[in-house]
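Quick start: load a record and inspect it. Here is MUL1A ligase:
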Amino acid sequence: PITPGELLCLGSSLAFSGLFYYLYRRKARVVARIQEAPKLQVDDNLPALVSATEGRCLPYVALEGIVLPAQAALTSHYHEGLQGVIQKLLLKEHRLIWNTLVRSW
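Running the structure step on this input writes:
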């Protein structure tokens, strides 16, 4: 006979295994897309290529060459001589919509 505690452990083990497998598959797809990313040179043709793509966005691209920051390079507080640029910037806009049907007094 199987006790309720054993059933609970088995069910939670299956649920966690399914969750971790799902996360693994998502990350594996991203890694595959990164490995297949086209390699582009940083030159004058890059802005024209970006503007010609759908949505004006290249999801995964490996840039080869010297990448210069827009204003000043970011420097590390922990390692002397280590510099970098911002790789990704996410901007979210929150709008308030006035709806007269939802308004309550």
